[in-house]
Each structure stands twice: as C-alpha cells, then as structure tokens.
Amino acid sequence: MAALNEDLVFKALYETFPDPVIIIDAERIIRSANNAALRQFGYPAAEFIDRSVRLIYATDAEYAKRLQNRAARVDETAPRTSNYLYIRRDGSTFSGHLRTTPLINDQGEELALIGIIRDVSDLTEAVSERQKASEMLNAALEAMPEGFAIFDREERLVVYNRAYQAICGPAGPALKPGITAEEILLLARQGGHYPDALPGTREGNEWIASRLRDFRYPDGKPKIHRYADDRWLRVENIKAKDGNTVVARVDVTDLKRAELALERQRQELEHKNEALDQFTATVSHDLKAPLRHISMFSEMIEDDLKAGNQTELAENARHLRDSVRRMNRVVDSLLDYAQIAHRITDWTQVRLSDVVSETLTILAGDANDANATFEVGPLPELEGDPELLRRLVQNLVGNAIKYRHADRPPVIRIHGSVLHQTVELVVEDNGIGIDPRFATRIFEVFQRLHKDETVYGGTGIGLSLAKRIAESHGGSICLDTSFREGARFIVLLPRWLRKAK
Amino acid sequence: MTSTPKRLLLVEDDAHDARFVMRAFAQIDKSIELVLVTDADEAVEQLSSGHFDYVLMDIKLPGSDGIELLRRVRKSRATALIPIIVLTSSINPADVLHCYGAGANAYAAKPSSVIEYRRFAEAFIRFWVESTILPPGMSARR
Questions:
Q1: What is the ipTM of this complex?
Q2: What total of structural domains would you count in chain A?
Q3: Cβ–Cβ below 8 Å for B38 and A437
C-alpha cells in the first residue's frame, strides 16, 4: 500500500464535505471556500474568494451580531446563539448554524478561522411553525368561553385559561402554576363561591369531598353544579393518558334556566290538567244530580197517580220542577264560566271606583233587603276588561251580602291600593266568614260550603268565576285567612297589562 | 232478621237523595234506624256521641269532603272498624279507588230509579245486616 498523502486526503474531504466550509483570515477576508460553500452561496470561486465575509450576511445587523458573538465567544454548539441569516448571490436568504474552529500556529497565533455553516432553514421554519402553533393554541385557549385547565399527577395546576380563572371566582386571583386542585376548591368555598358548600357546613364538607373524588377518580360523566350568583356549570374532569387531569368547565346557566322553566311549565300544565279533571268531575256530578232527581220524581209521580195520593203527587211535581230549574241554573253558570276567555284582547283603562259604584247600583235591591252598609275607600285605575271586572266585584260583594251574620247587619268594606305596579282590591265583610280549611276549595267550580241551597242560594260558581276573571287579567284572588271578623278577599291585578301575543 | 234495630248513619247533603234512601229503607225493613246528617263535621259528632252499626255516605259533601271524613272515621279508635258504604253519583274508577284507599268497605253508585233504590236497600240489608260474617274485630251485637 502506497504511503498515504494526508494533504490529498484532507483536500478530498474538504471538497466533498456536504456542509459549506469557509476559511477567513484575521482581516475577515474569505481565503477559501469548499464546493459546498460555493454551491450554497451561488458564487463562482473567483467572485467569492478574497471578498469580505460581510458578503454572506443578509444584513448589517446580522453581521454586527456575528461580530459581537465572536467577541463574546458564545457557545456555538447551541443553535439559539449562533444562528445567522445568510444571503446568497441571487439575493435569497437562509438560516444557517455557524460553528467555527480557529487555525493556530506553533506560536499560538490565530492564522485563520474555519467556519462550517449548516443550512438550518428547514429546522428554523419548523421551530417557528411550532412556536406559531403554540401561540395559536394559547390564543384559542384564552379566547374560548369554556374554562380549561390541566393539573399534573400531583394535582398541581399546570396550565389554565382566563375563563377558568373567572370560573374559580374568589380563588381566581390566587391561581398560579403549582396550586393544587384542593386548594382552589377550598379557597373558592371560603369565598362563598359554592351555594351547596357554604363555609362551615357539614353538607359543604361532603360536597367538597365529592367534588375532589370526581377530580381524582373521574367517572367520565360531566356533572352540573350550582355556583354563586345563581349560575350553573358543567364540570368535566378527564384523566389524560400521561397521568395529567384535564378539566373543562362550561357555563350552562341558560340551559339550566330553560330546563327549570320547562319543568315549571310542565308542573303548571299538570296542575291545569288536574284542575280540568276536577272541573269535569264536578260538572258531571252537578248536572247528573238533578237529572237523577227528575227521573226519580217522575217515577214517583207515576206511582202517586196509580195510588191516587194527591198530596204527595203535588209535592213530587214541585220537586220535579225544582230539579229542572236547578239544572237550568247549573247550565247557565257553566256557560257563564266558559264564556270568560283565558286571554282578553280588548283592554281599556278601567276606574275601579266606577266598577264598584256600578256594582252597588246593581246590587242595591239585595243590599236594601239585607240592610247592608258599604264603606268604599280609595280605588285605583288599571288596565282590564270593565265588564269582567264588574262581575268579579259583583260576585264578591254579592257573597258578602249573602253570607251575612244573622245577628248583625252586614257592613262591607271595599278599598284598593297600588304597590309595585300591582293593584290590590280588598272586599271584606262582617258576615259568617269562611273556615280557613276551605281557603282553596272555595275557588273550585260548584264547591259549596253550605248545603242548604234555600238559605244560601246559588250554584257555587261565583268564586270560581271571580278566580277565572282575576287569572284572565294575569292576577290572582285569595281568601285572607288571618281575617276573623268575617270574610276578606284580596284580589291582586297587574296595573298595566302585557300586551297579549 | 235481628231483633234489636240496627243504627245506620246516613251522611248526605242532598235533601232529595237523602229522602230517596230513607224511603227505600223504610219500605224494606223497619228495623233499621236511620240518622241523617248533612256534613262531615256533624257525622263525626254523631259517631262520637252514639253507637252506629254502619255508615252510608256520599263523598261529595259541602265543606270538608267525604274522603276526609273517611280518614277521620278510620283514625278514631271507636269507629276504626265500622262498615262504611259509599253511595255517590261518581262512577269514576279513580274516585272508587280513592274511597277504598281512604277506608271504605263498599261502594255503590246512586240509583236513578225507585226500583233501583229499593234493590240497593235490599242488598244492603242482606249483605250487611243479615250476614253473619262480620268484619274481623267486630263483635256481633245482637
């Protein structure tokens, strides 16, 4: 084997080395460049050699940075500190990682500097892409309305977004990486953030414990919890594969409110259905009773005729007529009741004082017979149907006269007031009063508290009619059970009506 | 037929219906003594002051209703086991169940003819008076 010429070896290595190699002297003039360097920068050797190395730096600033770094002898193994923007002959630029080696003679003088420039533009691009992606993710995290956070294996907070901070309420300002999930829960609780875990309550302790359990051993099902200010949040804890816990909080207050409203409506509807059932049951009872009686009496009349019993015949005939009349009254009452629409379309401004004086004129005859006196106080105005309101008042005043006490002449007081846009109309008497046990039953159709129709006439529709009128105006009626002198009815009506849809 | 008259408390607010019942019983068996009350409070008063063998009642009563009366009667130790027969116009199955649930022993719809009333009274006597089988706990008072 021939003796190896090292110069030839190094020359071959130099020329075939894949990375650009440039050798500069102390004056920073390019003394040599390998093929890769010429290719990379796009110069023929004649136009590259003997030029200042400034030639390959994209800008003065890049060159100045290089000079500074050289003076400071930065660590060139780290791309971060020794990456420069280089420029090719055609003006295009690339990012290169520069590593240098000084050529030193026996006396220790630096003769030249060998620089290897590796094109890292792909890498730089990848890094910057990653940086961009990470920034995008952060921005998205910040922008999203859902609270989001990551806790590590030790239950310490690692990442969180602004929404999560807001959701933590009183614990929000204390959030920082390292705080534990339990610390956050306890801080928020102390600040009264959880209506179901008020500070110092036993139920609260259990609630916090269950929240922690769900954080530590999530069952994969989101939970809905109540937060301060009547807000509802969907809480979801997810154990990630790496042992971290990802938590998501979504404000579902609107949904929950809609759900609660729906439930209220459902109950209302159920209540209405029950009322309707009750209504039909009562109506059929009150219609069937006189029918049955008519059938009975006609049969008895037949028997009386056969037996020639004249006295009983006359009596039974009278009962028959009474039953027919009674049935007539029931049907009339029903029609009355049915005619009141649930929603009134024709609203006008109504002066309750006019309504009351009109009622008193209509009832003047009965009032006279009963020797009744009226004390009418101030009465407000409101929006409504004057005819229906008159019937409401007439039913209440009529009852007050009818159910008078045998020992004293009836004194009936009617007065009203306005509070928070609600009109209150009060009708009270000194009559026989109503057992508080029946405070709600009296408003049901055909419910009568007094069996003897000859003493207290009527079909038992008056108060249910009054209730229906009050409700058709968006109001209510009730018996004041604390009033013991007689009966006191309170009607509440909105002063201004919301326009019907 | 028993020798001592049986006492039956009739709770009925409708005067006509009460008359029909009394008439039917009077035609069938003179040994039944009927006492008429027209509301629940009166019924409770009667039951606490005198002895009755049966209660025949409507469930639709003025004021406190029949279901409540049933419960009140069953709650009281003295009347916890007295046979209560509901006679009412409703044949609504829900009402029927409601009555049994509250402690009624039997349930019948109000008849709409003289003959049916009579049949009802006859059946009542046969089943409740002449029958020797008494509800558990009831002593045969003869």
A1: 0.81
A2: 3
A3: no
What whole-number distance in Å separates Cα of residue A402 and Cα of residue A407? 14
Give the tokens for residue B83.
């046979």
Asked whether residue A332 is assigned to any structural domain, the reply reads no
Q: Answer yes or no: is A172 within a domain.
A: yes
Mark which of A229, A251, A273 sits at the end of a domain. Answer: A251
Q: What is the CATH number of the domain that holds A111?
A: 3.30.450.20
- Tell me if chain B has a CB within 8 Å of the CB of A272: no
Please answer yes or no on whether B95 and A281 come within 8 Å at the CB atom: yes
On whether both A96 and A149 belong to a single domain, the answer is no
Cβ–Cβ gap B113/A285 under 8 Å: no
In a domain, residue A276? The reply is no
Q: How far is B139 from chain A (nearest CA, A)?
A: 35
Which residues touch B25 (CB under 8 Å, ≥6 apart)?
B8, B32, B34, B121, B124
Nearest CA to A330 among A447, A463, A468, A461? A461
- In terms of domains, do A231 and A344 share one? no
pLDDT averaged over 10-residue windows placed end to end, chain B, 142 residues: 75 90 86 89 90 90 80 88 89 84 91 90 84 58 46
Q: Is A336 left (phi over 0), alpha (psi -120 to 50) or beta?
A: alpha
Range of the domain at A461: 340-501
Indicate the residue among A195, A222, A251 that finishes a domain.
Answer: A251
- Cross-chain Cβ contact A451/B20 below 8 Å: no
pLDDT digits (tens, 9 = 90+) for A117-153: 988 888 878 888 899 998 998 888 888 889 999 999 9
* Neighbouring residues of B141: CB distance < 8 A, sequence distance ≥ 6: B4, B53
- Across the interface, of A285, A297, A438, the residue whose CB is closest to B89 is A285
- The answer to whether the Cβ–Cβ distance between A288 and B16 falls below 8 Å is no
Cα–Cα distance between A276 and A208 in angstroms, integer? 46
Provide the mean pLDDT of chain A: 87
Q: Which among B59, B68, B112 is the top mutation candidate for probing chain A, defined by the most A β-carbons within 10 Å of its own β-carbon? A: B112
**CA-based nearest distance A345→chain B, Å:** 36
Q: Is the confidence at residue A489, as pLDDT, over 60? A: yes
Q: Are residues A390 and A473 in the same domain?
A: yes
Restricting to A residues 290-319, those with a Cβ less than 8 Å away from any Cβ of B are 291-293, 295-297, 299-300, 303, 319
pLDDT at A208: 93
Kindly state whether A450 is in contact with chain B, defined as any CB-CB distance less than 8 angstroms: yes
